[in-house]
Write a structure and sequence with these properties.
By secondary structure, this protein is α/β, with parallel strands linked by helices. It folds into two domains: 3-116 and 268-302, 3-Layer(aba) Sandwich (Rossmann fold), CATH 3.40.50; 126-261, NAD(P)-binding Rossmann-like Domain (Rossmann fold). The chain is built from nine helices and 16 strands. The chain has helices at 46-50, 59-63, 98-106, 126-144, 160-171, 184-190, 214-218, 268-288, 293-297, and strands spanning 3-5, 32-35, 55-57, 67-69, 87-90, 110-113, 118-119, 122-123, 152-156, 175-179, 196-199, 225-228, 249-252, 255-258, 299-302, 305-306. It has an eight-stranded mixed beta sheet with strand order 3-2-1-4-5-6-15-16. It has a six-stranded mixed beta sheet with strand order 10-9-11-12-14-13, with helices on both faces. Helix 4 packs across helix 5 (160-171).
């Protein structure tokens, strides 16, 4: 079964799904087709891929493969043009994006979503999630023209993304207080005392309320900063909406909001290494057509028919 690796089409998405250093474990490298120039952003030549037995080809050739591996496949500009029966493997986020879900069903596609891949209770792409928190904090403070030192920071969440954010904040001498779902009311009570709020929660899409409403945001001190790493549209924070690397911030109620929706791409070299090590383990399964329990756990659509029935929540960006 052929597996294609297109250069991601999402703006400023520089992460790569599979690196030559991880191809040694691939049983049938001849099944892999990388778009020409795939590794250029990382200083990796096409020859380093073909030396392993893999192939390179045009974008058209890559997208004609039976399976497509793309970190931000849910944001891909080619999703609606794939042949029926094609399998996609990447961050899909169909639950959060009805347009993506519609493209999967109408196109008769099969989708394995990275946000739902877990092994032994741990998210497969946990390191990427940590990088999301780390990179978001660093970038957001640079956008504000400040350093975290001495800032009072509230972090919402205790998962991998929050751990990444907390590690950077404490390493740069911020004063960090951590909140979670059972202490949401306490956060709202103590909110005016903070300079920065960092949201890292895996948002439950069945909720119709917010951890912080617009009225709550208005109670923050003028000039404060919200770093919404989860960046769900009007999700945990009512005033949040996803932003881009080119235009990462906006202001509501006098509060600077940062909500870039793929911050690991800011550190694409480190992120690519972490992603590639994880993806390599599943390429053989995709090629053989025999899937582990972990990979089957990521199946959200088969031949255009939705298969997931659990509450839609997601991990990773």
């Amino acid at each position: 079964m052929s597996i294609g690796f297109p250069i991601p089409s999402k703006e400023h998405e520089s992460r790569r799904a599979l690196l030559p250093s991880d191809l040694a474990v691939i049983e049938r490298p001849q099944d892999l087709v990388f778009e020409r120039g795939y590794g250029d952003i990382l200083g990796i030549t096409d020859e380093r891929y073909t030396r392993t037995g893999a192939r390179t080809g045009s974008r058209t050739e890559v997208l004609a493969c039976a399976s497509i591996v793309d970190p931000k496949v849910g944001d891909a500009d080619y999703l609606g043009s794939l042949a029926p029966g094609t399998t996609i493997f990447g961050w899909v986020h169909a639950a959060e994006n009805p347009e993506v879900a519609d493209a999967l069903t109408k196109g008769g596609l099969t989708a394995y979503a990275w946000e739902h891949l877990y092994e032994d209770g741990r998210h497969v792409f946990w390191r990427n999630n940590q990088l999301a928190g780390e990179a978001a904090v660093l970038h957001a403070f640079l956008c504000q023209g400040r350093m975290p030192q001495g800032q009072r920071v509230a972090v919402i969440g205790r998962g991998d993304t929050a751990l990444g954010a907390i590690g950077v904040l404490e390493g740069l001498s911020a004063n960090v207080t951590v909140y979670q779902r059972r202490t949401e009311a306490l956060l709202r009570k103590e909110l005016p005392s903070f300079d920065v709020v960092v949201n890292c929660v895996m948002w439950d899409l069945t909720r119709t309320d917010h951890i912080l409403s617009r009225d709550d945001v208005a109670r923050m001190r003028p000039g404060s900063l919200i770093i919404d790493v989860s960046c769900d549209e009007a999700g945990a924070i009512e005033t949040s909406h996803p932003t881009t690397i080119d235009h990462p911030t906006y202001t509501v109620e006098g509060i600077l909001h940062y909500a870039v929706d793929h911050t690991p791409s800011l550190v694409y070299g480190t992120a690519s290494e972490a992603i590639s090590a994880a993806v390599a383990r599943y390429v053989n399964e995709l090629s053989r057509g025999r899937h582990s329990k972990a990979l089957e756990g990521g199946l959200i659509v088969r031949d255009g028919v939705p298969v997931r029935r659990r509450t839609p929540r997601s991990a990773g960006n």
